[in-house]
């Protein structure tokens, strides 16, 4: 929370005392500096019908749809989506895209999504279908292909950084999917967490930065609820603490 030294608020008052520059000037009557909450209301964003609740789904990102030909199974049986697994591809877009569409006859793999280093998002497999991205995990009923969404990210392990644009794009996608499927932060995993004996990816992933961007995507700008009643300090406090 930023410091509010310039604006001392008495929650029991319906008036905003103005302090700081000019406030002590005898030429300006104290009365003239006082603004009622009703006066302020017109400046506040109004909630529109259909607006999302704070903390709900982020914006759907634009995706390049390129359906996989194979390397996935239709449907998820009776399973529901319970998590998201992040990967690093250890490759480049040029070779990763054909592989992740099931084009490698020796290693049939796929992912639902793929995020390039410059932040473009591909979708290869429908979310309701089972992409073959995680392989054997420590608990397939929680982390396996049939219950997770897989996001591959273009990254050569141990040799490249993670560009901000890419991390932001993945986070935007994850906040959208978390909202859509009601998933918490503790349901977003690295492949290395769910298959620790076999996998290290996503290698060197900047999780704190990623989590910050996800949170931003999940929290739209607050808006004053549509109501005929006069706003209260509780309504306004969310704007004053930004
Ligand atoms: Zn992986």
Q: Kindly identify the CATH topology of the largest domain.
A: Lysozyme-like
Q: What is the 3D shape?
A: elongated
Q: Strands of the biggest beta sheet: in what spatial order? A: 3-7-6-9-5-10
Radius of gyration: 24 Å
Ligand species: zinc ion
Output the helix-strand order: EEHEEEHEEEHEHEHHH
Number of domains: 2
**Number of helices in the DSSP assignment:** 7
**Proportion of strand residues:** 5-15%
CATH superfamily of the largest domain: Peptidoglycan recognition protein-like
Oligomeric form of this entry? single chain
> What is the architecture of the largest domain at the second tier of CATH?
3-Layer(aba) Sandwich
Low-confidence stretches: 1-7, 22-28, 47-55
Tell me, what is the CATH class of the largest domain? Answer: Alpha Beta
Give the fraction of residues assigned to helices: 10-25%
Work out the number of β strands: 10
The main sheet comes to: 6 strands, mixed
What does the average pLDDT come to? 82
From the helix content, strand content and strand pairing, which structural class follows? alpha/beta
Head-to-tail CA distance between termini: 7 Å
Which terms summarize this structure?
alpha/beta, 24% helix, binds zinc ion
Helix-strand layout with pairing:
Elements: E1 15-16, E2 35-36, H1 37-41, E3 64-65, E4 72-73, E5 83-86, H2 93-100, E6 113-115, E7 121-123, E8 130-131, H3 140-143, E9 148-153, H4 164-181, E10 188-190, H5 191-194, H6 207-218, H7 233-240
Parallel strand pairs: 3-7, 5-9, 5-10, 6-9
Antiparallel strand pairs: 1-2, 4-8, 6-7
Bound molecules: zinc ion.
């Amino acid at each position: 929370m930023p410091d509010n030294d310039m604006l001392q608020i008495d929650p029991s008052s319906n008036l905003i005392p103005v302090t700081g520059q000019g406030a002590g000037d005898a030429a300006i009557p104290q009365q003239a500096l006082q603004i009622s909450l009703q006066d302020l209301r017109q400046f506040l964003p109004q909630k529109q019908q259909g607006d999302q609740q704070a903390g709900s789904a982020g914006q759907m990102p634009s995706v390049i749809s390129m359906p996989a030909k194979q390397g996935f199974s239709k449907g998820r049986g009776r399973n529901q989506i319970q998590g998201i697994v992040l990967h690093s591809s250890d490759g480049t877009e040029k070779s990763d895209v054909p592989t992740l569409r099931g084009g490698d006859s020796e290693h049939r793999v796929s992912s639902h999504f793929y995020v390039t280093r410059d932040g473009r998002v591909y979708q290869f497999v429908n979310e309701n279908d089972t992409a073959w991205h995680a392989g054997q995990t420590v608990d397939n009923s929680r982390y396996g292909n049939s219950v997770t969404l897989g996001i591959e990210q273009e990254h050569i392990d141990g040799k490249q950084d993670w560009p901000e644009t890419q991390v932001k794009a993945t986070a935007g996608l994850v906040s959208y999917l978390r909202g859509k499927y009601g998933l918490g932060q503790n349901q977003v995993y690295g492949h290395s967490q769910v298959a620790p004996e076999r996998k290290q990816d996503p290698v060197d992933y900047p999780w704190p930065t990623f989590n910050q961007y996800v949170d931003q995507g999940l929290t739209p700008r607050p808006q004053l609820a549509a109501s005929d009643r006069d706003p209260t300090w509780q309504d306004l406090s969310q704007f004053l603490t930004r």
